[in-house]
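Worked example 4.2. Below are the chains of a multi-component assembly; read each line carefully before continuing.
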Amino acid sequence: MRVVVALKQIPDLVEELELASGGTDVDREFLKFVLNEFDDQALEEALCLKESAGGEVTVVAFDEPDADRTLYTALAKGADRAVKLVGVGEGWLSGHRRAGLLASFLGNAAFDLVLTGVQAADDLDGQLPALLGARAGLPHVSVVVRVELDGPRAKVSQELGGGTVAEEEVQLPAVLGIQTARQAPRYVSISRYREIQQAGGIEEVEIQSSADEPDTYRLRRLFPPDTAGHAEMLTGTPAEVAERIAELIRSKGLVKS
Amino acid sequence: MSNDVLVLAEHQEGRLLETSFELLGKARELADAWGGKVVAVLLGAPDAAAELSAADSVVSCEHPSLAGYNPEAYERALVEILRERDPRLVLFSTTTAGLDLSGAVSVHLRAALVSYVVALSAEGDNALATARIYGGKLLAEVELSGPRSVGAVISGSFPAAFGRAGGTPEVARVDLGHVLGDLRITVTSVVAPEAGDVDITAAELLVSVGRGIGSKDNIELVEELADALGAPLAASRPVVDQGWLPKSRQVGKSGHTVKPKVYLMLGISGAPEHLEGMADAELVIACNTDPAAPVFDVADYGTTLDLFDIADELTRAVKA
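Applying the procedure described above to all two chains together yields the following structure tokens:
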């Protein structure tokens, strides 16, 4: 079983998001970038599949901030190959372009299954699993919470919302958008990471840039949401704030005073 | 190209989802502005057509592969219908089907796509969409000027009432058997959620914990607070994904929808998927150390103090 996992770097949302001049992108120079959390789930599921059914896991990322750290981490976790797609340029890469470039990478790769995160925080023009599936002409399923391999098929569980789950059989090769892996993503020790990093092993692949986003789509600006509906902030010591919260709950008649 | 706005009317076992009406109401407004018609697409569930009264016409298709939701069958049927109808705008919700279909449809039709839309308006001949990005920390304003566009809308963004008004739509039944053969995806079963250990949907007061809780060991600390308040403990997706609390406690798009009188959020940042599951809570109190967390845009009251300090003091306050 040859599994390709597409990984994406996104700004760490714990930090304040500064806008770059022009107002249509975040300031990539100063922001910390991390692996999209759903891609981390996809990687974990791929590694679990490899452990249970054998095979090879290839992780692929674009040359985005801190992508090397993510790729080395994936190798340290047990991925067999790490590919960095270079030559695309800097700045936010739209979902359509990302999908088009990945589809051309897949056109030259041997694989049975592509896993990636169900969504990412900067999916302004759509989510990768469906964009990539449609571009590559492969069956695709999003919001997947379980994957099992069964010969030329994958048995997948797809969440339909409200806890209802559809069990589906998907002919391979296919693209699956992973929401949750069967277990929490594994950790890597710093010593193991360093060992892998020192050995190198990231393959760089030059990828042709192409315009895949219809030119009828124009991002005018990014802006912070209106804070008119902002919460009334409670201030004071923890004891004072807790007392205010207790009063609020009591005001709804829910806790005895 | 037409000036029509087309909506996928989603249903579960024939029951139309609330979001379908939200989209229909918005479609009505846009189609009126552009001088077009509102077209609803109903796959499976032909009996629900009469309820789609805000549409001018309903395209209804029945086929064994459309009896339930099958991502591939839906995609093929929709693409076929869209090629024929050629609407200028197609609207989905960001449901599972919306995530499967909006991107695929935009690729097949070479149409522009905006996802996580929270506002949408006609601006002359164009559409102007506002979408949530970066977990709701920023909004993006996107202009759609072409002959074909697709929008995926976060549920709850538009009032459903506008989508329930209207008259009697013309219903066109179409046979799409020719594109529904040799599917590569088969749905083998649909499993309803198991009854949980506690029913968080019935609670009037909920204590809900998120990623900020940090580790499984810390669950005990908030459990103590929940016990003191006589409230069940609920959680956001990351906490359930980590296995710290069972799935039956999950609030949000892939979990339960709750409507408590008081919703106390500890260490939850307020991702759109979570907010979708608690939008109807009466009073929302949020505790998060990040003052820019989107949760404070929906909460009535908030504090940036440490959640453990608050949990500890609040336990004491209600026990006193």
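Take a moment to check your reading of the output against the notes. Chain A has six helices and 13 strands. The longest helix of chain A spans residues 37-53.
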